[in-house]
Specification:
Layout (H helix, E strand, L loop, with lengths): L2 E5 L2 E4 L4 E8 L7 E7 L5 E7 L6 E3 L7 E6 L4 E6 L8 E8 L1 E3 L2 E3 L4 E2 L3 E6 L1
Parallel strand pairs: 2-13
Antiparallel strand pairs: 1-3, 3-8, 4-5, 4-9, 5-6, 7-8, 9-12, 9-13, 10-11
Length: 124
């Protein structure tokens, strides 16, 4: 059974930083593309960043380029998202996901593995 658990969210002032982690089990991590998406209340998912199975390729949503960095440690079964220069518009619930491939900043495929999310709130 696949489990994905996010941590590291919280309340931060604009301009601050947070590092999200996603701990996984039940997956052979190096077989999957992984990513982060965020969801605003009542809205569809927005792909934030995606990383290839090897970690060599990364893609970002235009709004976070230069501010967010996605990385992974396949040996530890952990995915990270380091967020800097946070803005109030980054406030959302952030979810990690794993699937077949990256399509831009989105993780896509037939599995749709994802965690329950961690809340990030950026105050102005």
């Amino acid at each position: 059974q696949v489990h994905m658990v996010e941590s590291g969210g919280g309340l931060v002032q604009a301009g601050g930083s947070l590092k999200l982690s996603c701990t996984t089990s039940g997956l052979t991590l190096d077989r999957y593309a992984m990513g982060w998406f965020r969801q605003y209340p009542g809205q569809l998912r927005e792909g934030v960043a995606c990383i290839s199975p090897s970690g060599r390729e990364t893609n970002y949503h235009d709004s976070v380029k230069g501010r967010f960095n996605i990385s992974r440690d396949n040996a530890k079964n952990v995915l990270y998202l380091h967020m800097e220069s946070l803005k109030p518009e980054d406030t959302a619930t952030y979810h990690c996901a794993a699937d077949n491939a990256c399509s831009g900043a989105h993780v896509v495929g037939r599995f749709d593995y994802r965690g329950q999310g961690t809340q990030v709130t950026v105050s102005s």
